[in-house]
Write a structure and sequence with these properties.
Elements lengths: L3 E4 L5 H10 L4 H19 L2 E3 L3 H16 L11 E2 L9 E2 L2 E2 L16 E2 L3 E2 L26 H8 L5 E6 L5 H6 L3 E4 L19 E6 L2 H11 L24 E4 L2 H4 L10 H6 L12 E3 L11 E2 L2 E2 H20 L8 H10 L1 H4 L8 H11 L3 H23 L4 E5 L4 H8 L3 E8 L6 E7 L5 H15 L6 H4 L4 E4 L1
Parallel strand pairs: 3-4, 11-12, 11-15
Antiparallel strand pairs: 1-18, 2-5, 6-7, 8-10, 9-10, 9-16, 13-14, 15-17, 16-17
Helix pairs in contact: 2-3, 6-15, 9-12, 9-13, 13-14
Length: 475
């Protein structure tokens, strides 16, 4: 029997599990294939920020192959390459992905996917790359802040990755890369060691090509004893069909990002309205529900979202610095000063560093923090997500991923997912939907992802890479 060639842009965790378990391929061969793909394409995509030595990566793969041969398998993802730091589960770390630094929290309307170290991350789907002068999350942009984490999976650098989100940093880039992602309920995944913006809203989350891979990876990432965890793990809630799911939708035209984030294109907007295709197949479908919008979260004329985030950042960032064994700076002010003094290399051209303004605001608003947090929770939960789920008998609320739906989820501390849908005629970029669920309802979102996937089969590899990618042979 001859060998079969598997392309890295097609491979997912479930298929790799099967190949490794059957002995059809070894982890060392997977590492060679994924490293070759990085070498082939990252000179343009700029999705990687740093990597261990090739020798250390290959030595880990050899050791994990030996463990498997001896009957020791640490987890379902044993021996699988990943762009994340998670050794205990038996994964092979290929490196760290490029990103918008500080979750793009350094300023307003900064270009997504740009870092001083990694440069401008590019989408593997977009013909022509990022267009100079495009809006911050324009149709040519990979979005962010977890830009590289999305691109590395779509481009076949690894089958799974992990990014982080305060509001939008997982959902938006996964949406642009034809991937599934899930930002879980705050606290489900430990944030230890991750540079924070807001402990109220921050979480890590997985990115993958399939709902199964999301479920399997979330099983590894979650903290022990988290509420809502199914007996046997998240993978046990699969498969699921759309006739088991009740869906509520928001009005697309009212929720899509404004022109300052995405320059309008009429044909693109029409294409991205297509999520109503599930109307005829869902258990129940409620159209254009009156979900409250984040810009209404005001108290005494101030944005509760902004006040909570800024106050959290000041304290959480300092705590992060204090917990480091060694550090190049000792305070937020030192970071601000460094960026001001080195703006020519630390900021994208034409951008500025507004945190000085924010810090001044913080010295005047900290006493209002408790009231703003209470307002944020009441508006986003009681009058927002929970209200719609209860009154419309809905399991999930969906709308465009290029919207502020994830901001609503962040305000509530509830889970949010991104699901792929299609590709724009304009330039080939992928687009998708966002889905909200109630607190600790990760399993519900995974079920919805699987129903969505089996209905539409939406993920396709980047056309520009299909005939120019590395792979590995299986028996």
């Amino acid at each position: 029997m001859g060998l079969t060639r598997v392309s890295v842009v097609d491979a997912d965790v479930k298929s790799l599990q099967k190949f490794l378990q059957s002995g059809s391929v070894k982890s060392t061969a997977l590492v060679d294939a994924y490293l070759a793909q990085i070498d082939r394409h990252d000179g343009y995509l700029h999705a990687m920020l740093s990597m261990p030595t090739r020798e250390s990566i290959k030595n880990i793969a050899i050791a994990l192959d030996e463990e498997r041969a001896a009957g020791k398998v640490r987890s379902p993802v044993h021996g699988i390459p990943v762009i994340i730091k998670l050794v205990a589960a038996g994964m092979i770390i290929l490196g760290k992905a490029n990103l918008s630094e500080l979750s793009n929290f350094r300023g307003k309307l900064l270009t997504s996917g740009w870092s001083a170290l990694g440069g401008q991350c590019q989408s593997p789907y977009v013909r022509g790359g990022v267009v100079p002068g495009d809006s911050t999350d324009g149709h040519s942009n990979p979005s962010g802040s977890s830009s590289g984490s999305a691109v590395v999976v779509a481009a076949g650098y690894s089958p799974i990755s992990v990014g982080t989100e305060t509001y939008g940093s997982l959902v938006c880039p996964a949406n642009r890369a034809s991937l599934y992602t899930l930002k879980p309920t705050i606290g489900l995944i430990s944030q230890t060691g991750i540079i924070p913006v807001s402990h109220t809203m921050d979480s890590a989350g997985p990115m993958a090509k399939t709902p199964y891979d999301i479920a399997a990876f979330l099983d590894m990432l979650r903290e022990d004893g988290t509420p809502g965890f199914p007996d046997g793990g998240y993978t046990t809630v699969l498969p699921c069909s759309m006739d088991k799911i009740s869906v509520a939708t928001v009005d697309y035209t009212e929720w899509i990002f404004p022109a300052e984030y995405i320059k309008p294109d009429e044909n693109a907007t029409e294409q991205m309205k297509a999520y109503d295709k599930i109307k005829s197949v869902a258990r129940k479908y409620s159209d254009r529900v009156p979900l409250i919008k984040p810009e209404t979260f005001l108290l005494n004329g101030k944005s509760s979202m902004e006040m909570v985030t800024l106050t959290d950042f000041r304290h959480d960032f300092q705590k992060y610095l204090d917990d480091l064994e060694s550090r190049p700076i000792d305070s937020l002010q030192e970071l601000i000063d460094f960026n001001r003094e080195h703006a020519d290399v630390e900021l994208p051209p034409g951008m500025f560093w507004p945190l000085l303004i924010y810090v001044d605001i913080l010295t005047r608003c900290e006493k209002e923090y408790g009231a703003h947090l209470a307002n944020l929770r009441q508006m986003s939960r009681d009058k927002g997500i929970d209200y719609i789920l209860k009154n419309y008998d809905a399991d999930v609320i969906i709308g465009p991923a290029d919207s502020t739906l994830m901001t609503l989820a962040s305000a509530a501390g509830y889970p949010v997912a991104s699901l792929p849908l299609g590709y724009l005629d304009l330039n080939g970029r992928a687009f998708g939907i966002a889905a909200l669920a109630g607190q600790h309802q990760e399993a519900t979102l995974i079920r919805f992802m699987d129903a969505w996937d089996s209905t539409f089969h939406p993920h396709k590899p980047p056309p520009m890479l299909v005939d120019n990618s590395s792979g590995f042979d299986i028996n």
